[in-house]
Design brief:
Layout (H helix, E strand, L loop, with lengths): L1 H4 L3 E9 L6 E8 L4 H12 L7 E5 L2 E4 L6 E2 L5 H4 L5 E6 L5 E12 L8 E6 L9 H13 L6 H8 L10 H8 L9
Parallel strand pairs: 4-5
Antiparallel strand pairs: 1-2, 1-7, 2-8, 3-4, 3-6, 6-7
Helix pairs in contact: 4-5
Length: about 190
């Protein structure tokens, strides 16, 4: 196993939610051997989504996802196969609200076993709540919450009240939620 560890690798990914300001992003270390279907689950946890909607990956002109409408099932391809160093992937979550994420490969590094192969290294801000209407709906929601004279203010407060803190980011909590997703024995 010792000689084998030198051949194993991890990807460092910067996941940025597009069309939302200020930016919501995560820097994540992920085993290179992870299938895109598992990477989907990891991104869900890292961003704070609830995995209640369909998703899709796009790499160049190829689409990967959980159903037969995509080019290739995302369980059938690994991150290493589609994303070499300095490449980008596009991840869409909730095809109705169309939350677009840019996933940049910051680095591909050998896995030495000294640190967990899966971890959120950094990030900023909470992802928007589910079913709020995509980037435009989220912007309207925040405006309504901030303005008591907004016609939608009372509804926004009833729906989200103290549950929504757009500045919240808790790396430790996210990493605790990621425990068990991927173990060194899996890579």
């Amino acid at each position: 196993m010792q000689g084998m560890e030198q051949k194993l690798s991890v990807h460092v990914l910067r996941v940025t939610l597009l069309d939302v300001s200020p930016p919501v992003w995560r820097l994540v270390r992920v085993p290179s051997a992870v299938p895109l279907s598992v990477l989907h689950a990891i991104v869900q946890v890292a961003m704070g989504w609830e995995d209640r909607h369909l998703h899709e990956w796009r790499v160049g002109d190829s689409y990967y996802g959980p159903d037969e409408e995509t080019d290739v099932p995302d369980a059938g391809v690994t991150l290493a196969e589609v994303a070499p160093a300095d490449s980008v992937l596009h991840y869409t979550y909730d095809l109705g609200d169309a939350w677009e994420h840019l996933v940049e490969v910051v680095a591909v590094e050998p896995y030495d076993g000294a640190v967990p192969p899966l971890a959120v290294l950094d990030g900023a801000r909470a992802a928007p709540p589910e079913d709020c209407g995509g980037p435009h709906g989220y912007e309207s929601l925040l405006a309504a919450l901030d303005n008591p004279s907004d016609l939608d203010h009372d509804d926004a407060v009833r729906a989200f009240g103290d549950l929504l803190d757009p500045e919240a980011f808790d790396r430790g909590l996210i990493n605790r939620r990621l425990e068990g997703f991927w173990r060194p024995d899996d890579i």
